[in-house]
Amino acid sequence: MPHTPDPVEDDLDTIPPPPPVFHVEQALLGALLLEPQRLASVTGIAADSFSTAAHSALFAAIRSLPAPDPAQHAKNTKWLDQVLAAARDEARGLSATHLHSLIEICPQPRHAPAYARMIEAEHSRRRLSAAAQRVMHTARDTSLPQRVATTLAEADALTAVVDDIGARFPPHSGSLPRTPAPSPATTHDEETADEERLLLATATEHPSSVDQMRWLTSADFTHPLHAGLWQCLTALTRRGKPVDPVTVLWEAQHRGLLDAEAEPRQLLDLLALPFGSPEHWGERMLQRSVLATAHHIARCIEAITKDPTATPYQLIVGSRRALADLSSVRTRWQHATSPEPTRRPARTRATAAPRAGPPTTAPPAARISR
User: Fold this and answer.
1) Stated pTM of the model
2) Nearest of 210, 147, 230, 199 to residue 345 by alpha carbon
3) 29, 59 contact by CB (below 8 A)
4) Which of 194, 308, 335, 345: CA 20 to 30 A from 41?
5) Do residues 118 and 24 touch, judged by C-beta distance below 8 A?
6) Are 279 and 343 in contact (CB under 8 A)?
7) For residue 64, how far is the Cα from the chain centroid?
8) CA-closest candidate to residue 220, choices 274, 166, 164, 289
9) Mind listing the pLDDT tens digit for each residue in 142-199?
10) What share of the chain is helix, strand, coil (3-state, %, to 5)?
11) Collapsed DSSP state (helix, strand, coil) of residue 158
């Protein structure tokens, strides 16, 4: 006989089972309801450490009431009634039956400290995930007036969470996480490509600025060809060689950058259209790199928090390794922005006509990207 779908049953089938920590929380609450004096051995957690509102309300009620006399508690439910009344202010669905079921569920009340440690570990995972998500959101929020500063402030908050968890769960040897890191997000929008081309052209026009821009690296470019050309420029300037479109082209040939999509004439055209100052375009690129790095390290940390096999120690080690990548690009950003204000774009001899401000697109002849 064909099965007739039941909407109620089908909805229940789609509800995921509670995670392991839910059962740990039940066991701890049952232990404290049965033997309230064990609360003194429970440390490292608070009401907000629990995963559900009902569990949070019960734990807060237990902590708010003086522990009863063990002998009297074994004879009556007076203290349990007080806990229920206090918890119902925050969780109206609680009942006396629910409290008694928690007591029955608890396997060993003397294991309450171990249960609390497990709850503390899972709460640390949720805290770390939330802090990483705030970094990701901030790094992508284009409405922020001080986007880099705000993102770095959120990264500092994330670091503080990692440090706090590290103090609670000191790392030990063999703690490296096994969670695969997500691939970096790649951005190939035309505005970014145009600004990279303008940087290369203006740096070729003003090679003396290249050596002053050691805070910019080829890793900050989004297009491989542009990254390779920047390496050509930095190599020529550091060797004290002449720099112009032709010498850069010659260096590009030796580095294997020329192919059907990057022909000599096209590279010469790209490098012959400077506008503004290299520092301005370089800072624009580095800003994107800071934000992209912050977003990526937050994704990496979030990925570890989503791995149920990751221990608190692995969360700490993995997070600190990811944050080290942000520390490097952050230092370069500080070097780029601290010494002196950014020079705004100005007309150069190669500019065909006055412009009101920096262009967002490069001349068509200069567009070469991969």
Assistant:
1) 0.81
2) 199
3) yes
4) 308
5) yes
6) yes
7) 36
8) 289
9) 999 999 999 999 999 999 999 999 999 987 766 677 777 777 766 667 888 999 999 9
10) 65, 0, 35
11) helix
